[in-house]
């Protein structure tokens, strides 16, 4: 009986405790500013779109939305940063057409499956544009000349392997002609070269040539799409001319993988509403941006089709930007090899010194050898979390301490100088993205 009363008392106390506890509600999203990563440099259409959309979306979501440009590496740096961001919804990435190109050039492993897609925002097809002083007034006249004299027509693009290079290459393959492809550092320099009559044509979006076309200095021969551009209602499409070419630049929003669904739904609703903001729509129309909303899996399917198309184009023109040089992965591989050699040298030095030294010193040498192994394993683990700068600085500091028995300050200075040199070499000189 006493045991029964004791059990009743215990359950009564437990019930009172649980009754006094309230289930804590999850914090309402968002609680801090949201960042949109824009891989292209400031000043272009992508930058304008993301900033204008962010201004409209923050009015809906009642939280600051900041646009951060991360250019470089043919937009691979910004794309990689967004894919590796913490999946909490506070980092949104503006995906660009290069996402469906870089893997086929072996310059990036990222695909649309590296993200949680939100929505496509725009699609601007390429337009075949020539100078008004040129003799060509139709696409067929232009292609007839190209068939007559292969490689005689120089077509400018925004870089080898860029979307505007593939646009010209796609038309070239469909029409059975051969252009002379001239790479520039961007679409704007290519257009300037056309204005100066250094080249004969460009295949870029209408936004890049709109002001010059309206001024009467450039002429659009065709839109590389199946539907006419609303801004060019009198200009025929490549499909109408008998060439199945549908290619152009596109953009869209995405989140890192594994973002909680309530957060994803909140952001989707906010950007969907912001996309319909009359002020946003007007700004995009003024710049000739062709809005093309496509949500979730439909957006992912579109990117996969773009990737398949780009892969075929790249194969057709046998494009391999690293075929005649050391390749984009050569220097990162060289760095890993140097780290392995450095670590092996430190281990060998410690073991060898330990066998020749007195017993007391031998212990110290062996501990240094195991320390080198530990630093190397730690570097491999931390690289994916902390990125190149921090992990490599820590690794070189530790190794310099082990091998040179120098002070922490000197080892850190050596590491910072070495990492700085590597960073400048990779990112700015070789254009190889480092995480």
Notes on the structure:
The protein is of the alpha/beta class. The chain has three domains: 34-123 and 249-316, D-Maltodextrin-Binding Protein, domain 2 (3-Layer(aba) Sandwich), CATH 3.40.190; 124-248, D-Maltodextrin-Binding Protein, domain 2, CATH 3.40.190.10; 330-429, no CATH class. The chain contains 13 helices and ten strands. Strands 1, 2, 3, 4, 5, 6, 7, 8, 9 and 10 form a ten-stranded mixed β-sheet that branches. Helix 11 packs antiparallel against helix 12 (359-404). The N and C termini lie far apart (69 Å). The model is unreliable at 1-24 and 323-330 (pLDDT under 50).
CATH architecture of the largest domain: 3-Layer(aba) Sandwich
Secondary structure category: alpha/beta
* CATH homologous superfamily placement of the largest domain: Bordetella uptake gene, domain 1
Number of strands: 10
Helix content: 40-55%
Tally of contiguous helical segments = 13
> What number of structural domains do the residues give?
3
